[in-house]
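Contributing: when you submit paired examples, paste them exactly as shown. First protein:
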Amino acid sequence: MSPTVRVALLQTHASADPEDNLRRTLALAREAAARGAKIVCLQELYRTEYFPREESQANFRLAETIPGPSTEAFSALARETGVVLVVPIFEKRAAGLYHNSLAVIDADGRLVGVYRKMHIPDDPCFFEKFYFAPGDTGFCAFDTRYGRVAALICWDQWYPEGARLAALAGAQFLFYPTAIGYHPNDAGVAHVQRDAWETIQRSHAIANGVFVGAANRVGREDEVVFWGASFVAGPFGEVLARASQDKEEILLADCDLSQIESARHGWPFLRDRRIDAYDGLTKRFLDAA
């Protein structure tokens, strides 16, 4: 395995036609592979518009199984191009049981793992609890041809516990497929929210000595403006590449895996963790004595 791995984040808009989104995203992933990418990460719920803007039972028809159309199409692409793919999916697990999930597909087309979003938000225009059961996979990492990959999803990105557990599972790359934006009424504070969003994820890279990539969408869907700004950060938190806030892009970044060990030698956070003193993290809140 080469010490340097080129990763790609696909930042695009979504139309109301799932087949159109699938075709366009396949084309972007194929182009990313032609430009040297070895790991390609798609945005959250890539195959649809961000339907949790509303609560509607009609939207359950957008779900698919794993294996299903997305895994079949991207497995074929992986075999054709030799890339690893992180493919977010609105998963129908069983009748009445749905998850916000992703599939990790290795460079030979094998499905090597499934992750189900653990933290489910419920906010105006982000009504995910109506659709998705909380994940039950834990924060796992998967061996691929180009490194050990963990991928969490959107709201998970605000929780240091998930990033830490993925790193402890051996992740070298931590991807966050994302659908995040703002309501036009909040445009005046959107830059503050966007900065916070980037800062928390760069902190995961620093605290764990891993590469972090966040793939967001762009465009306006009804009341939500998605702010793009997909980025890749290195193990010291440095931004290796950042996309625009409003354009479709294939964002490429070269990740030197030797930097992981260098970062962890210089900042040995994993060595100095007080694992004997963290029992309180499993509680909802520590009441005052």
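Second protein:
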Amino acid sequence: MALKKRGKTWHTDFVVDGSRYRMSLETTDWREAQSLEKDRIKEAKEGKLSAKASDIARLTFPEAAERWIEDRAPGRPPLSVRTERERKRAVCKLIGDRKVKSLKPEDVLAYIRARNAEARAPATINRELDVIRGVLKKAHRWHLFAEHVKPVRLVETISGRAMSDDEKTRLLKLASSRKEWENAYYASVLALNTTMRGCEIKGLRWRDVDMLQRIVNVQQSKSKKGVRRIPLNEDAWEAVLALRERAKKMGDPNPDHYLFFSCEHGWLNPKRPQKGWRTAWRRFTRMISCPQCGEAQQPAKTCQNVECGSSIEEIKSSLHGLRFHDLRHHSITELAEGQASDQTIKDIAGHVSDRMLEHYSHIRVEARRAALDALSTKKGQASYGTNRGTNGVKEHENGSEVHAEVIEKKLENMVELVGLEPTTSSLRTMRSPN
């Protein structure tokens, strides 16, 4: 064990379990160098310290992050890999081309402050920190940051939207109104009636559909719990049959062909899945009607009807901002409103925990109000919620006098000699023998 000074900076050189460790302590103070050396020896004994800087630690952060992503890519969904690269670009924009071994906890904390100043969501910052953490762990340097860098605290909010019945009807009506929106329409029907995610719907092949038992087998999902068997109700079954008829126009459907196949630049390829229906989804969820002429159209400053030409700049569709994933929220909400058991909802939706179930099944206000209204009426008795008379007695068309007589008799049984309440034993002695 030895401390050496190179220039103005102290370096340490020690051996633990036959491995030699040489590194800079990055300090000019001798007493601080002694303390840091003890910490490094302790970390080496605990296996937290590498004998020499790894190759990835010598790279710049962008290079190290790209290598980390490539090493994780095999077996992962392409969308997840693309998302990590997007997060990497956001991190590299602030960290720059600094080498991994030169990063300090203060640099990461400064990054968090900068992202907070840009009003980024806590969840977004935490996902970007996952990239930084992954690179540092691969470089065997995360132990230097773990005590100082903590995830940003998340605000517990429900991310999702459940539509009203009118909105649901309007959504399906608009989606089915044009041929070019056909894929988005069938996908919406399946999502609303099976709770499937968009990625699960796009990954469906004909071998996953049991045409005899009317069951769909979800084989590709974001988690192991997502692999499940879902029975098809009438609406979902009709959508599957329509997709089957469409596939037959291209020949006999192969079990490996996708229900939602690739259709790019006019080329149809049933062996590849469709990437998405974003354009169609945005168009019919943003569709509005002119209040003057009633013509359906996309948002604009003025009505596209030349004869009308009224201003529609401030008009917005009630479905504007609705995400396709919100259909999953909506279907789970309807299951919860239909009094399905938690276990049944988990089996259908593929949830992992009760917390995730609670996250999705945010019952609408109307359902809560209906549940509370049921408490105001007792079964088997007359309701006093409506049609009350001025004296609080419910009036019947031919029986109001009888009802009043029954109440009067009940009151008579409640009042005795003193006219207040049933008398005690001492007062009962005051009665005459008759």
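If you have annotations for the second protein, write them as plain sentences, like these:
The longest strand covers residues 9-16.
The chain is about 40% helix and 10% strand.
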